[in-house]
Design goal:
Oligomer: single chain
CATH class: Mainly Alpha
CATH architecture: Orthogonal Bundle
Number of helices: 4
Number of strands: 2
Number of domains: 1
Length: 75
Amino acid sequence: MKAARALLNMDQRTLSELSGVSLATIRRMEASADTVRSNVDTLVKIVDTLDREGVVLIAEGADSFEGGRGVRLKG
């Protein structure tokens, strides 16, 4: 999430406001060491918001130039 926000020059508060997810939840999710854990509804809200704002989430094993998971701006 941090990388996606960085691409958009977006702070946690803005993501919270746009997604309808509490700031505390976003902070907790970003503080996770590895896999972000949350309920499905919360994850969907965040993913939909990032997509709407112009970020593509790249899953592990998906086609990408460098391989591996990550984020990029829509082209």
